[in-house]
Amino acid sequence: MIKLEHIFKWYNIGGTRSFVIKDINLEIEQGDFISIMGPSGSGKSTLLNIIGLLDEPSEGHYYFMGEDVLALKPKKRITLFQSHIGYVFQSYHLIDELTVYENIETPLIYKNLSGKERKAIVGDMLDRFGIVGKKDLFPAQLSGGQQQIVGIARALAASPKLLLADEPTGNLNSKQGEEIMALFKQLNEEGMTIIQVTHSEKNAEYGKRVINLLDGQVK
Amino acid sequence: MIKNYFKIAFRNLAKNRMFSLLNIVGLSFGLAGFMFIATYVVDELSYDRFQTNADRIVRLNTHIHMGESKLDMARTSDMMGPILRDEYTEVEDYTRLYISSGAKLVKNGNRWIKEARVAHTDSSFFRLFSYQRLHGNLHHALAAPNTVVLSRSAAERYFNTTDVVGRTLETNDAGNTVYQITAVIEDMPKNSHFNYDFLFAMENAPYENWGALLSHNFTTYILLRDPTDRTLLTSHLDEYVHKHCLPAAKQFMDISSMEEFRTQGNVFYYDITPIRDIHLHSNLMGELQPNGNIQYVYIFSAISLFILLIACVNFINLATARSASRAKDVGVHKLLGSSRSGVAGHFLTESLLLSFGGICLAIVIVITALPLFNDLSGKTFMIYDLINRKSLPFIGLLTLFVGLIAGYYPAAYLSSFRPLQVIKSRSVITSGKSFFRSSLVIFQFAISIILIVGTFIITTQLQYIQHKKIGYERDNILLVSDYHVLGDQARAFRDEVLNLSGIKMGTVSGYLPVSSSSRNDNPYSKETVMSTRNSVSMQTWYVDDQYLPTFDLELTVGRNFSSSRLADSTSVILNETAVKHFEFGSEKEAIGKKIYFQLDKNMMAYDVIGVVKDFNFESLRDPVTPLGFFLGNHPVEAAFKIETADIPTLLARMENSWNKFAPGYAFSYRFMDDAFDNMYRAERRISRLSLTFAALATGIACLGLFGLAAFMAEQRSKEIGVRKVLGSSVVGIVVMLCRDFVKLVLIALLIAAPISWWGMNKWLEDFTYRIEISWWIFVLTGLIATVIALFTVSTQAIRAARTNPVDSLRNE
């Protein structure tokens, strides 16, 4: 599904190259559940962003479902991203002005789905994550764990093939974190490919494979 | 999708109430100002366009410049219209208006009512001008003598009905004349350069010089066969001068040809003004009513546009200032699949909603402030004139336009955020583009400062006019109007009034030192043969021997008239300017000299017996011109010098004796200082308008500054916290926060000062007597702007500086 070849990412600081990612080669199969670990500054998030098409590598090749992503035009890349990747954030990034229901609905609006289809999908999501009773609440009225569940529901609403999560439990207490991880595991068992960045050994164990990064390189 | 836009925009606005309120209030004032000015401008531009023949009707003007005397008049002789029609084929028809003294007394029951909106006109009037007929036949309405056409309101005033054709009206002209009403028309539209309630037949005009080609007393309109004939007619006007005016001039002047006349630096020609241009582009002597001024139309349009822009700038500034807090939303929306234009749509929807809120509040403001605006502009608009079926689409467009103008930049700027920037970091997004924002604040304050400087200078000039020593006494002078109706009783009335306690002295004359009263310009020379070279065009004022003392006019040499000296009827008292123009040398040398005046075939000679110090008998816009006082009778008004604290009682007593000597006629009076102030009504209006505009612009700019300061303080809360932990005092923080804003105001002052200096000098050039623009005006304006800005900003700065640093730092 994903194939990274000799990926480099650097910044020019005062004339010298400061490497964030150094020569990473990685292959990820459909249905995988990968945990990227490493200390702060090891390049975990940058790698995730490159995989999520939010950032471009300075050098290297990236194939996503057989397509040479870096050769695509920006517009095509966005379409690819929209239809195949869902993103979950450490700080949830829900839209404060929208209710739970509307937050989950938003990506569907952008996909130009009809009102009826949207209603069905959102209803399905609310059901699946057990938040039907909270659909008319605003993010500020929810606990962190509940917000993250909404975030995941929103990411999955557009039925992506790949779920990217950047420290999804970073802002949660351990009990909430466990719930989220259990949810991930369940999703993976249902066939979803998941890549998560995490600090926690415990969370990493939920994945099928752990990639340890140090100074931009796979250890 | 659209529903989603509105939902998010609405909730966003509701969440940021202060931001929304600042914007809506600012926009509403800007929009209300714009709606008012737009109505005013549309009205000004609409003058005389309702005339069906508007593109074919022109008015004739006369220009005669001889020596110091320059006559540019909207009047011609009675002969010009008929001659042009008979001799030139492009002239299809003509009509004339004759306005004698500007008012007539009309009898209603047994009371005489003073009617000011009266004119004599030809029966062709209704062939040129289009008015709605209510009763009678307009084509023949004024063909016979002793006929009159009434407006609806005049008919209703006198008869309580409009169906009055065949009934009669009595007026005071030429021994009482009875007129038969032959037609009634709808009231003339307000947006016309003339407006009459009574149109009398031309044959009854109280005019004595019929046929005199060089007496210019009629307003003449020409109906051209084709709008393009204007140039042809203009070229024929010169021919008219040669063929008709020159022979007439030769009869009493030493003049051989127009060429010679012109080489001596003199000017004599006629030209035309299309009637649609009269209101805004013509400002000659003898206009039928005070006209507008295209300059003011331009200036007001510009100012209202600027005020609207200032309000839009508020939105732009506040929206970009909040970009840090909005960045997250932008990022998330983009991550969820929104395109850039989709994100831009969010912001445009927000600004459109604000604009809509603004227009709703603006309409409320317009409705409440309409009386104030009418007072300021001198118009009589109704709500319906501003908000009607025709204007609503424009108001809608305006809302849309303002929403797009205000929303465009924030939408373009904010939608350019890349999602990664948001995901990656919590605080990388600074509220960038502060240079752009600063420029906008500078723009806002520059406009405000220009308006404040303008207000200062206009007010100072008005103060100067009001307090300038103009050379005569204008306080405590009471003027009694319509003095001529007393007839033979004039002297008896005057003597009785002079005996009242509280009256010091009095004089009877129509010639008063305010520009609305009688004027009489005649050529004099100090030699018996008059030529264009030695003639002095001089005001000829007939006064009695009490005129100089009543008005406290100062004689520099010589003596006043004395009723006991018979010879004084051929004496003259000159002002200093006249002495200069006659080139008598000094004032002393002038005494005993003679000046001559050609009256019909006789040469009249007058002895100079005194010289008065120059006084401003016209508005201070104009210089003092030559003036001569002659002993004579001109019973139009009487001026009484009063000395009493109890003016009402005095007035009641005067009215008593008036009613005794002139029964049936209303006693009408005014005060000299009011008459004087009336000359500067236009200036006072401009002064009040500029004050209003300046306050509006500054107020709206301050709303924006207030919001900006609030966001700056919020954004720098962490910095403020750190500084306080490091030991900075509250004052230190406040100074730090205010400094940047004050700097902007000072830059605005630097930009605005030269612009306003230049503009106001242009305005002052209209006045012969004017103030110098001094540096303190700019210093004071700068100070005011700075204080206002500081006051606005410091409330926010102090609040920010006083917060406990722990609160702002804990947030991290």
What can you tell me about this protein's structure?
The complex is a heterodimer of chains A (219) and B (812). With 219 residues, chain A is α/β, with parallel strands linked by helices. Chain A has a single domain, classed as Rossmann fold. Chain A has helices at residues 44-51, 74-84, 100-110, 115-128, 144-157, 174-189, 201-204, and strands spanning 2-13, 16-28, 33-37, 59-64, 67-68, 85-88, 162-166, 193-197, 209-214, 217-218. In chain A, strands 6-7-8-3-9-10 form a 6-stranded mixed β-sheet, with helices on both faces. In chain A, strands 2-1-4-5 form a 4-stranded antiparallel β-sheet. In chain A, strand 4 and strand 5 form a beta hairpin. Chain A is globular. Chain B is of the alpha+beta class. Chain B has 3 domains: 2-42 and 294-463 and 681-810, no CATH class; 57-281, no CATH class; 477-678, no CATH class. In chain B, the strands form 3 sheets. In chain B, strands 1, 2, 3, 4, 5, 6, 7, 8, 9, 10, 11, 12 and 13 form a 13-stranded mixed β-sheet that branches. The model of chain B has no long low-confidence stretch (mean pLDDT 86). In chain B, strand 20 (594-599) and strand 21 form a beta hairpin.
Gyration radius of chain A (Cα, Å) is 18 Å
Mean pLDDT of chain B comes to 86
- The end-to-end span of chain A amounts to 22 Å
Q: How would you characterize the largest beta sheet of chain B?
A: 13 strands, mixed
Helix fraction of chain A, binned, reads 25-40%
Q: Rg of chain B to the nearest angstrom?
A: 34 Å
Helix content of chain B: 40-55%
Which protein chains are joined by the largest interface, and how many residues does each one contribute? A-B, 25 and 24 residues
CATH architecture of chain A, by name, is 3-Layer(aba) Sandwich
* General form of chain B: elongated
